[in-house]
């Protein structure tokens, strides 16, 4: 039946329904909001590649899948190789370490003697059945707790990665449909469409520039690390220069610290080698100087400003990375530039007109 409501009340009612739907959606995606923000970064970083793949293949589903794999496979290879290397190094350290030499140091905090098989053997000798039951209960409870914790963590990570990949896939495949629906709903000549198009262009410039900077910086770092390792004195050796070079490139997205998170610990390692041996200390000094100039300062001044900032102020972009990560956590590295671009575009294209209309009302 038709209720005797005015058009204004019907409009207000539908606005309330839309707002309620947006609130429910925001609450639903809040636990995985970081994954969705990261998916937006991946989408803008790969959109140009996807368009070329579409032109070459023609099938939208296959093109989106190929684009996602082009992003996923290199990341899996680097992360998998880094994890395998770390596990191998830790296993070697544990296999060749002797805890007895650290007993005097750790005794005020941990009694290493209690960690050996002696107490268990003594308990078995006094009461074998009770000792067996106790050790079995401890083993099962500890193993169950560790397995449950690890399984929960792995499941949470896999769910977030899966959602990110699905979100990227559908954004790449159906972004034109979403844009067409929005333009058709509010009118293609509306002011908000022009503002969102401007934001869209800036986001693509910044995020594509981030990826290009990571790739170029990785090449710089791999070249410098391998070259320094080749000319290093006999005692010194840069461990896994290729892997560390790739991780240095990825380190550019770490706010505030950047690639220093990789080459500063490497420099400390080289100084430790020099101080514990008769090796000359000039090499660690030379290494950190060359790395800071060739890999850190020069690319940061020229590459980031050339590839990432675009028409935006470079200082504002760097400020967005740092403040975004502080305010929102790890995904703030990607959310910060999005908010910055939205604020800059609205302030430049919308605020002057609003201010002029406000002055005309005075």
UniProtKB/TrEMBL annotation:
Chief site of localization: membrane
Residues that span the membrane, as ranges: 12-44, 64-87, 147-172, 206-228, 240-263, 269-289, 301-322, 328-351
Subcellular locations according to the entry: Membrane
Lipid metabolism listed as a keyword: no
A Pfam family: AI-2E_transport
Presence of the UniProt keyword Transmembrane helix in the record: yes
Keyword line: Membrane, Transmembrane, Transmembrane helix
GO cellular component, one term: membrane
Membrane topology classification: Multi-pass membrane protein
Similarity comment text for this entry: Belongs to the autoinducer-2 exporter (AI-2E) (TC 2.A.86) family.
Protein name: Predicted PurR-regulated permease PerM
Species this chain originates from: Halobacterium jilantaiense
């Amino acid at each position: 039946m038709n209720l005797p409501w005015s058009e204004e009340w019907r409009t207000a009612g539908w606005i309330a329904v839309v707002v309620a739907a947006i609130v429910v959606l925001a609450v639903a995606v809040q636990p995985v909001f970081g994954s969705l923000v990261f998916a937006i970064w991946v989408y803008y970083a790969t959109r140009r590649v996807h368009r070329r793949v579409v032109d070459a293949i023609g099938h939208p589903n296959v093109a989106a899948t190929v684009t996602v794999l082009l992003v996923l496979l290199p990341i899996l290879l680097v992360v998998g190789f880094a994890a395998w290397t770390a596990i191998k190094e830790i296993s070697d350290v544990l296999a060749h370490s002797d805890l007895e030499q650290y007993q005097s140091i750790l005794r005020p905090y941990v009694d290493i003697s209690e960690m050996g098989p002696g107490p268990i053997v003594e308990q078995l000798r006094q009461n074998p059945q009770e000792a067996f039951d106790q050790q079995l209960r401890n083993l099962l409870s500890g193993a169950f707790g560790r397995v449950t914790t690890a399984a929960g963590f792995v499941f949470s990570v896999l769910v977030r990665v899966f959602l990110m990949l699905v979100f990227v896939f559908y954004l790449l495949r159906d972004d034109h449909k979403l844009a067409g629906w929005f333009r058709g709903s509010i009118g293609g000549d509306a002011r908000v469409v022009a503002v969102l198009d401007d934001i869209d262009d800036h986001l693509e410039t910044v995020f594509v520039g981030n990826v290009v900077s990571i790739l170029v910086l990785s090449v710089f770092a791999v070249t410098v690390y391998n070259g320094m390792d080749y000319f290093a004195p006999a005692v010194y050796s840069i461990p896994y220069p290729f892997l560390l070079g790739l991780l240095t490139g990825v380190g550019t997205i770490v706010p505030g610290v950047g690639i220093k998170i990789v080459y500063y610990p490497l420099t400390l390692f080289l100084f430790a080698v020099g101080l514990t041996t008769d090796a000359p200390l000039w090499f660690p000094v030379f290494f950190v100087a060359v790395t800071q100039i060739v890999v850190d300062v020069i690319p940061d001044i020229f590459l980031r400003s050339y590839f990432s900032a675009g028409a935006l102020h470079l200082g504002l972009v760097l400020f967005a990375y740092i403040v975004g990560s502080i305010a929102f956590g790890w995904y703030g590295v990607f959310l910060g530039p999005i908010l910055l671009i939205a604020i800059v575009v609205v302030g430049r294209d919308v605020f002057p007109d609003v201010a002029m209309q406000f002055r005309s009302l005075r």
